[in-house]
Amino acid sequence: MRFHRRALTGLALALACASSLSLRAEVPAGTLDVLFGLENPTPAEWSRWYEGLVHYRQEALKAAGFDDSIYRDPRQAWSDTAFRQFYVFMYDEEFFRGGRYRTAELIETLKRRFGPVDSVLLWHAYPQLGYDLRTQFDFYRQMPGGLEGLRREAVDVFHAAGIHVFLDFNPWDLEPATDQYRELAQVVAALDADGVMLDTMDSTPPALKAAVDAAKPGVVFAPERRPEDRELSRARESWAQWYDLGEDQPSVYRQRWLVPQHLQTAIRRWDTDRQGDIVYGFFNGSGLLIWDNVFGSWNPYSPSDRALLAQTSLVQHRYARGLARGRWSPLIPTGVKGLDANRWDWTEGSGERTLILFRNRSGQDLRVVPPATWPKSTARVFWPEPADLAAGQEFVVPAGGTQAIAWGDDGAGMGDLRQRWLATLTPAGEPGYDERTPVPVRATADVEGDLTSTIPADSGHLPDGFVGIPGGKWVMQVEHMKRETGCYPFGADDYAMWGWFYKDRVTHSIPATVRDVAIRRAPVTRGEFLEFVRVSGYHPRDDFRFLQEGGSLSDPVTYVSLEDARAYARFRGERLPSEEEWQWAAETGSGQLEAMSGAGWELTESEYDDGHTRFVMLRGGIDLPPNENADWMVARGPHPPSFHAKYLLQSPGLDRSAKITFRTVIDLASPGRGASRPDRRR
Known about the structure:
alpha/beta
């Protein structure tokens, strides 16, 4: 989510006036995102600038009342070097498919695709919140196997692989009123989570932290938005999302400089070229969020970006101690315009070590001769592949890229690193992964059991409760609220599919042909569905929340999955309508159809699978008023027949909802089979 930035002028001026800084030192310029350095400074110029930078940090932390307790807490020490976090969208089929968690397979896929991963974020409720009254915590509890199953089959498996686990917290989910902090703490403890990502937030409320700490001490908090300085005492990590990196001048992360153990994870979720974020996060010795399934919209990493991710991760993990606890000298002189360098010095074992990471802001490869101020012993250089670098030997930093040089490396484990590095040098395409916005395919109807219909296939007349709808061809105008889950791309342009939004209603066109059908006048009732269960003996394999709540037998049936609805329809010789048929019937039915808008969302046969996420298109709407936090919710209330919503599918138990029902159709063999002839929409 985008947020405005303010120039860092007032604070810098205030600190300059309040300080006892020598007249030769300089107060750093910058924004609240980054601090700017000097372009190709001399050693003397850099020393004056660095003196001001150190003093600036001291004064800023003093003004913020900084307390370093969380950075001294051994339970949170793992965060120092958690350089790579993967965003696990729990509807992704690489995480859960075919009725089971696939955590172990996912871990191996991530290693092969991106290199080492240190933590994962288990994302659950958005963009599903709002279809009914479930809360964000319900979506964790209703995962397959409940909290116990999610912990056993996912969290514990990640932990066994040395991967830490974050949950996310959505403060805007305020309906119905709950003690959010208490519930969050309960879920964190039940899942044995290591961290909490604070969605849309720039701070960690003390009451939230206290509640979670009481349930499980030592949890790491990571706001999505840039934290204020005072928050660095509570938030050990934060997202560096859409940061202004100062492309035309040297810069470093501001929060990372203020507290070098504060891990900032770079992310620009909609970008197709991630090289800039990879390089900048690496150059700062900081983190990166890997995110390809953006709430059901697929935005893969290119083969070259995947290779760079793996390579930079190998370097960061080899020198993790220095990056986390070494003495950082930012933006040191390189003698080359457009080339920035960060240096870390530390002691490891009995030896002194030095690491310099580079960022090439120019549009060309830069050839560099090490300045006299750098160590003069043989070093290790990493790009294009790991090799020795003699004292004073020239090296290259690729255009727009990075480089790393290390001194004092004893070489232990270098052979293995080199083999892993060489494996990344010829990045190959990955079928099934590389295509952005893959065209989804209509999924094959999955019907459980061998259910036999009690209704003849051609009875010569319409059953009671059905209305005949003649078919036709037309251009279907569909509309939906623009949400980050995207749409399917048939007739949808990039604006409908991707990027930032704010209450935009998107319309696009899809050529459609529908056959003559008869459609139920009203949704299937609870009584009708219970009778089907009684007569057929139907019982789903996954019966979690199946027909969970009672109600009047005349009410539309709810707490049924797409699989349940298909089973009912098949038993009766019927089927679910496609969304084209549903809209055509609603627009041409001459008022003969009931409860088409506002009585409940209705399943259609328009189920799709893009190879990463399954979803079904819903029609209708629910009789719930929009809540005050509806910006991130599904649009509620009645909708016109042209409105559709993309409902993500994961498992029948999670998919079942108190506000989703269905109606069925019967194919008519000929236009005259019992069908009345309403006027067609022009």
